[in-house]
Amino acid sequence: MVFDLMNPEELIRPEGFSCSCGRQHRAEIRFLRIAPGALSEVTKALSVLGCSRPMVVCGPHGYEAAGKTVCSLLEAGGIAYSLHRLDEENGERIKPSEHAAGSLLLGYDQKCDMILGVGSGVINDLCKVLCTAAKVPCMIVATAPSMDGYASDSASVEIGSIKYSLKEKMPEAILCDTQILAKAPQKMIRAGMGDILAKYTSLIDWKISHIVTGECYCDLAADLVRDSLRRTVAVADGVRESREETVLAITEGLVLSGIGITFAGCSHPASGLEHYFSHCWEMMQLEKGKDSELHGIQVSIGMLLTLKIIEYLKTICPVMEHAEAAAGRFDEAVWEKNIRRVFPKAADGILEIEKQTRKNDRAGRLERAAIAIAHWDEILSLFQTELPSYEETKALMRRIGMPVTPREIGLTNREVIDAFVCSRDIRDKYLLSSLIWDIGYMEETTAMLKDVLYAETKSES
Ligand SMILES: [Zn+2]
Ligand SMILES: [Zn+2]
Predict the structure, then answer these.
(1) Considering only CA atoms, which of 247, 248, 254, 249 is closest in space to residue 152?
(2) For residue 61, with 0-12 CB atoms within 10 Å meaning exposed, 13-18 middle and 19 or more buried, which class applies?
(3) Which part of the chain has CATH 1.20.1090.10?
């Protein structure tokens, strides 16, 4: 059975697939349509879920883009519903915060038997939280192909000034009408393209973690993500005109990423170091009470930085003496001070992760370094065969109007370096930066990255 020749709608068959990785893979989605005019199937999706009274949740943009049509389709089908509109306050965009989640919970209509979210990232996250709390199924009508969270069970939320990734119920029905999605703002389409491009490095990151830590790996889930990346890049030039075939490829890729995550049982096929650059930047902005750039835009810049880092790693020849020397220089107090400087509010939580994982312990570190060094040829061949070059990827992104440097999205060189150094600390996940730290090349890689950033700054001014 070949996953990469299947379309997303075939992948959700209820019996699932038995895979060569030894597991039975099943997506928890019961209805999926990615096509022009898919919105007209909203009442059909409802009956597949066995639900009769949805609570429609949307923001102002989602209401205009598709919410209105959803409501009239429900009315035409004789289906009662309640409508809960989240409004932007003081011109600020809706956030996945306690405030918005609280508003939804208080406004929850007990007569409803499902949640029908109409929107993109934030509405999707909030609806996952609500449907988990209310113990009802959730359907999502996508309004922008901007991120890969539609077919995923994780919700990104802000509690206090800290960003959390919560495990929630997954939407059981997803409708992606490409005619609606193609009308999304250009920036949202570019962001979706960015979240797809990020898969170049997330797939490498995952494989490395598998080699070094034995994290479970599934070739078929990787193929699924890799194949949709290839198909999307082939039509990337259509991003600028919001061409429908490009929007379709991006949307399929985003949904497939979510399905890949479900099959793999971890987020690693779709999120590696490039995503952690973005997570760190978001946390830094939250600490300062500022908004971040769109997720997909940030992760694509994280991906370019990761490609640069990989080009550097291709030139080194790691040995145990070097890893041991770096382990000898490691100072826990200095490390902790740095975390507290970069993330004043989130620091305690981050330090707690270290107490549980002990990734900084010398013995474990050197054990992982020894495995990585023993497998360096294999890692090198991943770098050489699976990735496009930094320059060609940057040129592609430029061509379709995407920003390509951290400065273009308002990030300072300091924030880039801090994100790289702290990426291995903010959650319990083995990343390319964890490997670099283990083999003792953190200082050298950071110095290289600084040179690249300062050269870019100079050439711009
Ligand atoms: Zn993403
Ligand atoms: Zn598998």
Answers:
(1) 254
(2) buried
(3) 191-460
Which residues, listed in sequence order, are joined to residue 164 by a DSSP beta bridge? Answer: 157
CA 442, CA 433: separation in Å to the nearest integer? 8
Residue 459 has φ and ψ, to the nearest 5°, of -70, -20
Please tell me the distance between residue 26's alpha carbon and the centre of ligand 1 in angstroms: 21
Average pLDDT, the chain: 94
Superfamily of domain 191-460, CATH level 4: Dehydroquinate synthase-like - alpha domain (1.20.1090.10)
Contact predicate 208/368, CB 8 Å: no
Cα of 257 vs centre of ligand 1, distance in Å, is 9
Residue with tokens 């890689």: 445
φ, ψ dihedrals at 141, nearest 5°: -105, 110
What the block records as the tokens of 416 is: 């880039």
- Averaged pLDDT for residues 104-131: 94
Per cent of the chain over pLDDT 90 is 81
pLDDT tens sequence across 156-214:
888 876 778 888 889 999 999 999 999 999 999 999 999 999 999 999 999 999 999 99
Ligand nearest to the CA of 303: 1
| Number of helical H runs and strand E runs in the chain | 21, 10
Indicate which ligand has the atom closest to the C-alpha of 221.
Answer: 2
User: Which ligand sits nearest to residue 26's alpha carbon?
Assistant: 2
> Which residues lie near ion ligand 2 (Cβ < 5 Å)?
19, 21, 218, 220
Positions of CATH 3.40.50.1970 in the chain: 3-184
The H or E element spanning position 117 is strand 114-119
Q: Helical H runs in 67-120?
A: 68-76, 98-106
Distance 268 CA to ligand 2 centre (A): 13
420 Cα: distance to centroid of ligand 2 (angstroms)? 31
Among all bound ligands, the one having the nearest atom to the CA of 154 is 1
The domain defined by 3-184 folds into: Rossmann fold (3.40.50)
